[in-house]
Amino acid sequence: MTTAPTRPPGKAERIASAAPSRLGAFLRLRELPVTVALIALVIITTVVNPLFLSPQGVKDLLLNATIVIILAVGQALVIITRNVDLSVGSILGLVAFGTGTLFATVPGIPIVVVFLAGMLLGALLGAINGLLVTVAKVPALVITLGTLYIYRGLNNAWAGGTQYFAGDRPDAFGSLSVDTVLGFPLITLIAVVVVVIVAVYLAGTRPGRDLYAIGSDPDAAKLFGIPVSRRVFLAFLTNGVLAGLAGVLYASRFNSVGATTGSGLELAVVAAAVVGGVAIFGGSGSVVGAAMGALLLTTITSALTALRVDKFWQEAIVGVLILSAIIIDRIASVRSARKLRISEARNV
Amino acid sequence: MTMEFIRNHTRKGASARRLASVTAVVAAVALLAGCASDTGTNTGTDSGAGGGTDGDLSITFIPKQLNNPYTDVVLGGGEAGAEEAGFAATEVVGPLEASASSQVSFINAETQAGTSVIVIAANDPDAVGPALEEARAAGAKIVAFDSDTNPKYRDVFISQVVAKDVALIQVELIAEQIGGSGEIAILSATANATNQNEWIKFMEEELAANPAYKDITLVAKVYGDDDDTKSFQEAQGLMQAYPNLKGIISPTTVGIAATARYLSTSEYKGKVALTGLGLPNEMRPFVKDETVTAFALWDPAQLGYVAAFAGKALADGDMTGAEGDTFEAGELGEREVGADGIVIVGPPTVFDAANIDEYDF
């Protein structure tokens, strides 16, 4: 399809590749399409329904996105290494129910302890995923599809018909998702901190860059001496910790936690990462993009309701976004492949 | 033959690998089949005993969804009722997700096991039809409860209350709470739930017909799919889409709790009224913090209890489910089958700050 014969570079192309302008670099940012879409969506919705950006409206938008943002950041880490974790919804469910159980059975337990316990349980479940993927050498898609059902099954067996409600938890815990600082709900600030830490780690540290190398070409990464298994394991472990954190926050935000909490969430999370410019075959993308993707997808739901659009259209629109993201990604990679070919031809 | 095909069309290494994976799959299937035939024999013996004498009847409850707190209360009543009514074996099976087709395989399994009475809360009135017809052909009596199937597929339907009464009491409560005028919305469960849609239809008729409600406008019906997160966001969306909204009716326990949680944590608390059908245990904090003043429900345990006795009367041949038939429902006394084979359990109860602490379910 793209096997056009290599031809000598045209004048315009030579100039473009010789002097990559700052504007060009900006336009090639993977996060750009999702950001533009988000801004356009917010502007259009606000023009039609000014209530959309009322203080309560903004607070709701941020709260809705918070949990998916944290999950999307973890998922981006895993996808960048050319893997995927489909069990995050089940991990979130187990941790959320665990959180409810802790508060209900250990009266007066400090909130910090609950956070730590939730993240520890998440880490354990993530580590199981990571071990299975790196030791068994079976595609993560299959492994985590299995653990999706195993974790959900454990949750069903553990919870049965029991549910814990907001009333069972201390007010201070619930108010984490009610109180705001400068208009930002507290749990959203936690999500922002997560995004910043992981973004810096990915962009600025050796192990962080290794994840991209692994995702681009696992075999080359191994030859280069990168401890592939260890890094991939770390990505799954981190994702588990973040899913655990999201589970604790879920219990803070929503009324009930039980056997079905978080089911079906995994697809929304993968969609958020992909829409945010994380290539599903690994090797490129950023957690900032994934977070923007999460914000965009949750904002669409609210926008369509605020615009009184039938909610049955919402899923179709999400699908269109995913396809657009993949097509944009494909065009970009074909272009850069061609450019590489051209510059290599010149260097000979 | 498949092996031949693979060997002919792949290279040697690949075919060996393929062979290995085929063997693995076969082994897995054999294992599964082993488990299945085990359970098959077990239920087989059960049903053999069950079919043998009149005294050894078996009853199986198929709720909309397992692990749903409301359903658990209903089933608790059902199990107690089944024991009192004298069933030899009581089972509860069902899907973990409330979807239209998910109950069919469970009905089929009960048919094969020769269960005498199947008590079902239909996720979809027609999707379960063919499977129920097969079960009846095999001799099972079908009791629908909570959410009806198409009447031609069951013997009787045990209704919590008169559907119209449930609808009317919710309209009455919301009218009272918003002072008789303004915009209201309905936050329901799934868009194709039989009971929800019947109540909504009665609510709409009442709002249109009763002059006392002439100043109340129903501006929206939204669906939270009995999912906490979705219901929560639908409640949020309603507030934004309809800034003049004065009240919400949520005739589903998940919806009303999620909406209450949203209202109680937002600036709309105390400004937008909320009523509907809720579980006292789940709604208690919201009644105490004045997000909700009053809501309604029936005693869910009685529903399962009466369903079990109806099943017994049908299986014993004491009644056929025709209009005018009567049966004894244990400590609740005699119940009569009404038009369309519907049996009514009792009137709805209204819960408010004054009485909510008297209930524990």
Automatic annotation (TrEMBL), chain A:
<comment type="subunit">
    <text>The complex is composed of two ATP-binding proteins (LsrA), two transmembrane proteins (LsrC and LsrD) and a solute-binding protein (LsrB).</text>
</comment>
<keyword id="KW-0813">Transport</keyword>
<feature type="transmembrane region" description="Helical">
    <location>
        <begin position="131"/>
        <end position="151"/>
    </location>
</feature>
<feature type="transmembrane region" description="Helical">
    <location>
        <begin position="288"/>
        <end position="306"/>
    </location>
</feature>
<feature type="transmembrane region" description="Helical">
    <location>
        <begin position="61"/>
        <end position="81"/>
    </location>
</feature>
<comment type="function">
    <text>Part of the ABC transporter complex LsrABCD involved in autoinducer 2 (AI-2) import. Probably responsible for the translocation of the substrate across the membrane.</text>
</comment>
<dbReference type="InterPro" id="IPR001851">
    <property type="entry name" value="ABC_transp_permease"/>
</dbReference>
<keyword id="KW-1133">Transmembrane helix</keyword>
<keyword id="KW-1003">Cell membrane</keyword>
<protein>
    <recommendedName>
        <fullName>Autoinducer 2 import system permease protein LsrC</fullName>
    </recommendedName>
</protein>
<feature type="transmembrane region" description="Helical">
    <location>
        <begin position="232"/>
        <end position="251"/>
    </location>
</feature>
<feature type="transmembrane region" description="Helical">
    <location>
        <begin position="312"/>
        <end position="332"/>
    </location>
</feature>
<dbReference type="Pfam" id="PF02653">
    <property type="entry name" value="BPD_transp_2"/>
</dbReference>
<feature type="transmembrane region" description="Helical">
    <location>
        <begin position="32"/>
        <end position="54"/>
    </location>
</feature>
<feature type="transmembrane region" description="Helical">
    <location>
        <begin position="101"/>
        <end position="124"/>
    </location>
</feature>
<keyword id="KW-0997">Cell inner membrane</keyword>
<keyword id="KW-0472">Membrane</keyword>
<feature type="transmembrane region" description="Helical">
    <location>
        <begin position="182"/>
        <end position="203"/>
    </location>
</feature>
<feature type="transmembrane region" description="Helical">
    <location>
        <begin position="263"/>
        <end position="281"/>
    </location>
</feature>
<keyword id="KW-0812">Transmembrane</keyword>
